[in-house]
Design a protein that fits this description.
Structural class: alpha/beta
CATH architecture: Alpha-Beta Barrel
Strand content: 5-15%
Order of helices and strands: EEHEEEHHEHHEHEHEHHEHHEH
Radius of gyration: 19 Å
Number of strands: 11
Largest sheet: 7 strands, parallel
Strand order of the largest sheet: 1-11-10-9-8-7-6
Number of helices: 12
CATH topology: TIM Barrel
Number of domains: 1
Distance between the termini: 24 Å
């Protein structure tokens, strides 16, 4: 949790993935639409390297990426022990630059930073980055035994530590903009927790999330969020200690509000809710800012019944798309981004 509570006041930002190919133009538009918290875009249609897990795989131990076959898997190395020893030597020596995300894997990160450098002096605020979360990463890679790496305690711990130090490298890189970094851990695999992860204990999930969240916060001033675009156990995610929680407020508002006491305590302690109110997968183009604003205001009223003022909730609120936009058409994604920017203005005009 942030030691000093932040006043976001319905600041808007994105999740990450976009369907565009015009990289410089996209980054300029992101800075224009979301000047107080621009995000670096993941150009998922450009290259397999921008797959949400592949993008953060550089420097992780025993990982093999095949761009032609579009596979990410554990390498069939007979030097597992020595590779893990080498990895931990780099990790514990705090070799942050050795865990960099290269421009080949994340050009949007570098292009956005260039765009921010061109903004006149005096601009401040936040800049948002993202990383695949530890659950999604380790559950999506198969080990040599055909089972997800999440069941291999030795290798999964190494991968999660690698993910943490890579996130710290990203924070250090984003800090060069002069803005305060905000890093989201993207955890789509936590959707429907309790069914798909029946063999994974709740406490184990919390510990895996904490391993990344705590590492970033112990070594930086970055705010750390957790994003899940499906129905999940939000009390479990809150227990991991993020500063921000981001959910699909368009489709799962009622499920999210099943945790009123936990949400109230989170907000009172300085936490922030990022309302993913602009739909992505369900986007039709007929959505109105008025309807979406009302939906969020109704959610705020429900939380406020537990002793949290509307003003406090407004201060601790960010608005986002419900999920990444990579699967949308370019035209729909542009419309959704403009709707989000307009919605930000509508919220701020309400003066909640």
């Amino acid at each position: 949790m942030a030691e000093k509570a932040t006043d976001f006041g319905f600041m808007a930002t994105g999740i990450g993935s976009v369907p565009f190919l015009e990289m410089e133009e996209t980054c300029r538009e992101i800075v224009r639409l979301f000047p107080r918290m621009p995000f670096w875009p993941q150009f998922v249609k450009r290259s397999y390297f921008e797959d949400m897990s592949v993008q953060y795989s550089e420097g992780l131990p025993l990982i093999e990426v095949n761009q032609e076959k579009r596979t990410l898997k554990v390498s069939a190395s007979d030097k597992r022990e020595s590779e893990l020893v080498s990895f931990y030597e780099r990790f514990f020596s705090h070799d942050i630059d050795g865990f960099a995300i290269s421009a080949a894997y994340a050009p949007g990160l570098y292009i956005l930073m260039d765009a921010l450098r061109k903004i006149e002096a005096g601009q401040n605020g936040y800049v948002k980055g993202q990383t695949v979360g530890p659950i999604t990463l380790t559950s999506g890679i198969l080990g040599l035994d055909g089972k997800p790496v999440i069941h291999d305690s030795e290798l999964s711990e190494a991968m999660i530590r690698g993910l943490a130090i890579k996130a710290l490298w990203q924070v250090r890189f984003l800090e060069r903009s002069g803005r305060r970094p905000v890093i989201f851990l993207d955890e789509p695999s936590l959707s429907g927790f309790g069914s798909a992860f029946s063999s994974i204990q709740r406490q184990h999930v919390i510990e895996m999330l904490q391993m990344v969240v705590s590492y970033i916060k112990e070594h930086s001033d970055s705010l750390v969020g957790i994003h899940c675009c499906g129905n999940t156990d939000w009390s479990m995610i809150l227990a991991a200690g993020p500063d921000i929680i981001n959910f699909d407020a368009f489709a799962f508002m009622e499920h999210f509000l099943l945790y009123p006491e936990e949400l109230s305590a989170f907000l009172k302690a300085g936490g922030t809710i990022a309302w993913g109110i602009v739909p992505t997968a369900d986007f039709t183009g007929d959505e109105s800012a008025v309807d979406l604003l009302k939906k969020v205001k109704d959610g705020i009223s429900t939380i406020a019944k537990n002793g949290v003022s509307h003003r406090l909730i407004a201060e601790r609120s960010i608005i986002t798309p419900s999920c990444g936009m990579g699967s949308m058409t370019p035209d729909d994604a542009r419309s959704a981004l403009n709707l989000l920017a307009g919605l930000r203005n509508a919220f701020q005009d309400q003066n909640l």
